[in-house]
């Protein structure tokens, strides 16, 4: 049996059940899942609940294999930048960021792993630059490098396409696909793009607009 992530009747919006319906899903590690929907329908909250960083209002999230199941831990999950919640530190260099991540997650051979990751995500020429001195494209690449550095089972990205050109995102998306094949992880991301939905293995629709302008479960 492949390692899997299981969502059992998960809901994240306790205050307004009109905007939230329980979610049941089972995803293989190595798949790609997209949470798609408008603002204020719990997309980022659900993303964080999947990673074990936010307790669902109802239901459970668990990893499982042939022998056991367990709640996701920080060693199981890598998180890309989330504005206002999990930002990159603006005054650290890209290399310093990765070095801190490697040591905080007890990565074996941290210097070697950091150098590999800098090359892997196209950051090596910019490794001595501070986060605040590089553009959105490089900041996102740094965030993905951080999220994947300790080889987690799950990688969470919150609207990663935002601020990128179509070409930039196409290249980065293909790199993520190749990395999932090399070192399998479940890529779970929120998105506002229909194209991302069409390319996903699994999709959760958090809402759609009715004719009267209100939001309802998808």
Automatic annotation (TrEMBL):
Annotated ABC transporter domain ranges read 5-216
Q: Which UniProt keywords apply?
A: ATP-binding, Nucleotide-binding, Transport
Organism domain of life: Bacteria
Q: Does the keyword ATP-binding apply?
A: yes
Q: Cite a single GO MF annotation.
A: ATP hydrolysis activity
Listed SMART domains = AAA (SM00382)
Kindly give the PANTHER family that the UniProt entry links to this protein.
ABC TRANSPORTER, ATP-BINDING PROTEIN
Regarding protein family, the annotation reads: Belongs to the ABC transporter superfamily.
Q: What is the designated name of this protein?
A: ABC transporter domain-containing protein
């Amino acid at each position: 049996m492949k390692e899997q992530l299981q969502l059992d009747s998960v809901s994240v919006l306790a205050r307004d059940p009109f905007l939230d319906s329980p979610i049941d899903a089972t995803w293989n590690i190595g798949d790609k899942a997209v949470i798609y929907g408008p603002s204020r329908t719990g997309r980022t909250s659900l993303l964080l609940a999947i990673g074990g960083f936010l307790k669902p209002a109802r239901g459970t999230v668990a990893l499982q294999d042939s022998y056991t199941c367990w709640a996701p831990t920080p060693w199981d999950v890598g998180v890309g930048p989330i504005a206002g919640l999990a930002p990159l530190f603006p005054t650290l260099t890209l290399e310093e960021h990765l070095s801190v991540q490697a040591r905080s997650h007890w990565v074996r051979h941290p210097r070697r792993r950091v150098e590999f990751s800098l090359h892997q995500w196209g950051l090596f020429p910019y490794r001595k630059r501070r986060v605040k001195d590089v553009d959105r494209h490089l900041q996102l690449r740094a965030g993905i490098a951080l999220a994947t550095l300790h080889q987690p089972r799950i990688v969470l990205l919150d609207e990663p396409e935002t601020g990128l050109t179509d070409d930039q995102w196409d290249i980065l998306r293909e790199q993520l696909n190749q990395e999932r094949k090399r070192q399998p992880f479940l890529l779970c991301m929120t998105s506002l793009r229909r194209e991302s939905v069409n390319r996903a293995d699994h999709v959760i629709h958090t809402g759609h607009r009715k004719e009267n302008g209100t939001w309802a479960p998808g």
